[in-house]
Design brief:
Chain lengths: ~220, ~220
Amino acid sequence: MELGTHPTFRDSADGTVLTSARAGDPIDRATDAARRVVDALLRTDRTNANLERVTEELDGIAEHLEEHAPAVAERLIDMWSGEGVTRHDPVTGPENAIAPPLVLEGRGDGTVCGTVTLTMAYQGPPGHVHGGVSALLLDHVLGVANAWYGRSGMTAQLSTRYHRPTPLFEPLTISGRVASVDGRKIHAEGDIRTADGQVCVSVEGLFIDKTVPRPR
Amino acid sequence: MELGTHPTFRDSADGTVLTSARAGDPIDRATDAARRVVDALLRTDRTNANLERVTEELDGIAEHLEEHAPAVAERLIDMWSGEGVTRHDPVTGPENAIAPPLVLEGRGDGTVCGTVTLTMAYQGPPGHVHGGVSALLLDHVLGVANAWYGRSGMTAQLSTRYHRPTPLFEPLTISGRVASVDGRKIHAEGDIRTADGQVCVSVEGLFIDKTVPRPR
């Protein structure tokens, strides 16, 4: 993310949405529909759904989309141009069907947070969120918290603690904040809680202020 | 995973595949096609690809699959019955379009490893793997390494270190092993390397031998 153009808690209102809104654009609606297919494939009956026909139809759609896809190198340039917030990341990206997607708001106290209900595709232990998915979400939230604080860094170290199993199918609150800054080292922390405030997973992250250049 | 039924490095051959093979079943083929759609949606041209029609078709497929889906509670019982290795997790599950999917083999020395090439959907920094995705993959690999060692535990703590950006579109080798066991505490470690052996991400995990009951 480019500094200077990105909102921070010092210059922006409490409640500023820091992730790309699902805009109702055709690509966002198509991605929502793809998310629905991913979930339904995990839930559907293995013998009574016509999976041969589904395969054919999905392959047909993919072929159509691929026919209209530019070369990957060209697409990479395009997807990193424009707005400071990405639309394609695997946590908050409205254009990425892997993303739940998580919507994050910045708070006046420097915290960022969002609420998300995770479903079948994110399952680890029976009925619960995969521990690695919790780490994925928290890493991303800490990155957004850095930007809201006015810094930007690459993850150097991420320490995740699991306090209790994190439930699927229930609203979870995910939050993060910068705890301290020491030169180029940014220390951030965050957690995932159930609706009644129980901490399921907590995280501490060390980020180094070092930007990976955008493709061009 | 149920102990006793799961292969370990003491009783099974070097090279034993520890993840569910893509069986060519209709559900696996349909999920492969869904993966292709997820990727193509990220790559396709935003203006020329007739995304309205794509949305309609994807929604139609989802509707068909949902019509044949049992209640979630019932499906949860079903998906956890049978074989000891899950087919639906977000890292190795052939039935989960979010999973790359990673295929893991057990080695005679107790290590588990696999090779995977990650694409657009797993992007964090431009052209590189999202740090949280690396944590997700490594958490899962350590879980499989525990089972190959003959133990099974819930993640208690996961410490991930990022040594250099992890490239997309290149084969990555992911491996894990149990480092030591102290009563119910299982210490495991692993890493992600490029084809020429450079370590991009390393991980240490503490797992506690505590099984979450399967739904029934």
